[in-house]
Specification:
The chain is mostly beta strands. The chain is 9% helix and 40% strand. It has helices at residues 98-104, 153-160, 172-182, and strands spanning 2-6, 11-15, 18-21, 24-28, 32-40, 48-49, 56-62, 73-75, 79-83, 86-94, 109-119, 125-127, 131-136, 205-210, 214-216, 227-234, 240-243, 247-248, 258-260, 266-274, 277-283.
């Protein structure tokens, strides 16, 4: 930051060749700012001046004019840098102090007061006009991560909807819901009714509309470990679902082998062949009845 002090005016000026006063500065919190200060005798002279040996100089930023108020940023150690005829005084102004950080908080900006003061004889001090110092909060703190990427539109849609333009591997329940939503008839012709003994192929998915109390009789012949999904929709009442003799429902005894169903609800029964029996793995409905 370049600063120019007109000794004839006793003020900081906007430009060495222009006597207009410097009124404000705007800096960024967190930055390590380097001040470069030059002294001139007047606006008519662009010759830089050196201060007397033994000078003292400070540039301070405060939030209050009170004497007891501590500085929020202070440049008090100056180094003279001479390049040919140019004389410059250089100092670091730390804008990353803890007090400044706390005072600024989450605000976008903070309006403070700044001033330059110096002495060449150790007794008589000269001070600049008070500057309006605007401190902008830093956006990048150092611990930020990269923004989350939006999901691919195709992947997002495929995970949430039944697509008609691509092939999807829908689960049994998803297939049943899709067909019900579209008003399509079940795959196996006719309703699943009382005494149902249709051939349930090992590993197949069966669909239907259950319109009465029904007995499920999966095939007696079946490979060990094979699974069977039976999907249906209840219509016309709260029916009971019975299991055939070669089905071992979870937690059911041989004397009580039924499951209460609720009207107008989709069900999925997952079964697996274990030895002679088909074992009911799960039913996505009410609790099994003993």
């Amino acid at each position: 930051m370049l600063l120019s002090f007109n000794k004839g005016l006793g003020k900081l000026v906007a430009s060495p060749a222009y006597p207009g006063l410097l009124k404000s500065v705007e800096w960024k919190r967190g930055d390590a700012l380097t001040l470069e200060l030059r002294f001139y005798s007047s606006a008519q002279s662009l010759v830089t001046l050196a201060l007397e040996v033994g000078y003292e100089m400070r540039f301070a930023v405060k939030a209050s004019f009170l004497e007891a108020a501590d500085t929020l940023a202070l440049a008090s150690v100056w180094t003279i840098v001479t390049t040919g005829d140019d004389i410059c005084y250089r100092a670091a102004l730390n804008l990353n102090g803890e007090d400044l950080k706390t005072l600024l908080g989450d605000a976008a900006t903070l309006l403070l007061k700044g001033e330059l003061t110096y002495t060449e004889d150790g007794a008589n001090w000269t001070s600049s006009q008070t500057l309006a110092v605007t401190i902008d909060n830093d956006v990048i703190k150092g611990g930020e991560g990269a923004p989350s990427s939006l999901p691919d539109v195709e992947d997002w849609l495929t995970a949430r909807a039944v697509r008609f333009d691509i092939i999807q591997a829908l689960e049994a329940g998803e297939q049943l819901r899709a067909r019900n939503n579209l008003g399509l008839a079940p795959y196996n012709a006719g309703d699943i009714s009382e005494g149902f003994t249709a051939d349930l192929n090992n590993g197949s998915i069966q669909y239907g509309i259950l319109t009465n109390d029904t007995t499920i009789n999966p095939p007696i012949n079946g490979s060990e470990g094979k699974t069977l999904d039976i999907c249906f929709y209840t219509s016309g009442g709260d029916w009971k679902l019975y299991f055939g003799s070669n089905v071992q429902p979870v937690s059911l005894s041989s004397d009580s082998r039924y499951f209460d169903l609720v009207n107008n609800r989709s069900y999925i029964i997952k079964m697996q062949r274990v030895g002679y029996y088909w074992t009911v793995l799960s039913i996505n409905g009410p609790t099994l009845v003993d």
